[in-house]
Amino acid sequence: MVAGRIHRLLRLIALLQSGRVYNSAQLASECEVSRRTVFRDLNTLQEAGIYVLYDDEKQGYSLPWRTIVPFKDLTFEEVLALFVLSQDLDKTIVGLPLDGIARSASAKILSSLPDDLREHVIEAARSVSIWLTPCNPAKRNEIHYKTLLKAVTSKQNVRIHYDCPKEQKTVSTMLSPYHMLYSNREWFVIGRSSVDRGIKVFPVLKIKKSELLDETFKKPSRFKLERYLGKSLEPVRNSPRAVPVKIRFQSRAAQTVSHINWDQSQEIRTLKGGDIEFRARVENLDQLTDWLLSFGNQAEVISPPSLRKLVKTRIAEMAQIYTSPARRN
Predict the structure, then answer these.
(1) Looking at the chain, which terminus has fewer C-beta neighbours within 10 angstroms, N or C?
(2) Which residues does 114 contact at the CB level (< 8 Å), separation at least 6?
(3) Which residues, in sequence order, are CB contacts of 190 under 8 Å at separation 6+?
């Protein structure tokens, strides 16, 4: 994504200007990408006029402290992408510290551009929009978000108290937060839990109390978000292993399903008459059921039987609601 790469390039510049010399492996670890991506980003900076220095003796890279990002050299497409993303993200994720920050950052960049380019971008942005799923969490979660963000960026442990539906009580744990993720309309924090003695995902909405601790931690170099989540795009895992599923979509829904990567493990086979067969390995069958029901009679579960039964039960429950007259307040 454009926004992700811009964030990574700015992170790379900050590291190189810190006064420390980094080699490619260290930069890759800090930016959570491969060394090949680091070399590509370094080349992008060079092409943009940000001349990265290589120290033969220390075998690493650095930037002069006074190097300034030449916003005036950004292309029209780069500025437009940044401006549209920041404006629409700002409208979507309301009630978190992102609210207002992205917009003010893009405004500062726009103000540094030549007049003709700035006016061109503003005019073009009126014709481009990105509609994301809205999110408006409670104000108390904004406090926890700020605490967790501080903990992630400063590598500090945090004490959290969260609702545990399984035990039907509030549980306390010391967390070393490695990563924050926004997915499926909510924020998650991922890190090592002292109670679970391993890496776990916590929905921020479930956190009732958070406290930043003085103790710091070192994030394991082997931890990578993609590796931890595996092929599943669902942060919170409800089963210990993925289950293979096979679903048939009729022609009216086939085009929608075929053109979007719903899951990293998916495979799609074209059938006669325009139907398709969707295959994937899924960990959260409950969430998959909600997705399937959104296609109505255009989707049929072929396997596993447990998913077919789950969908059938959900449909029966829905039918039961509509067998009686609507309830009046």
Answers:
(1) C
(2) 72
(3) 177, 178, 179, 180, 181, 199, 200, 201, 202, 225, 228, 235
Q: What are the structure tokens assigned to 5, written together?
A: 């790469």
d(CA 229, CA 216): 25
Phi, psi of 283 (to 5 degrees): -100, -30
Q: Residue 1's pLDDT is what?
A: 44
Which has the closest alpha carbon to 318: 299, 295, 293?
A: 293
Q: Which whole number is the average pLDDT over 178-191?
A: 83
Q: Are 205 and 144 in contact (CB under 8 A)?
A: no
CA geometry: angle 257, 262, 266, nearest 5 deg? 90
Strands 243-249 and 299-303: antiparallel
Picking from 23, 62, 31, 67, the residue whose alpha carbon sits closest to that of residue 49 is: 67
Residue whose structure tokens are 């890190």: 191
Q: Which tens digits make up the pLDDT trace of 18-43?
A: 778 899 999 988 888 888 988 988 88
Place of tokens 């920041």: 86
The stretch 278-303 carries a mean pLDDT of 87
For 126-184, the pLDDT digits (tens) are 787 777 665 555 555 778 888 998 899 889 999 999 888 666 788 899 999 999 887 76
Cβ proximity of 52 and 63 under 8 Å: yes
Do 160 and 209 meet the contact criterion of CB atoms below 8 Å apart?
A: yes
123 vs 132, higher pLDDT: 123
- Tokens linked to 14: 């900050």
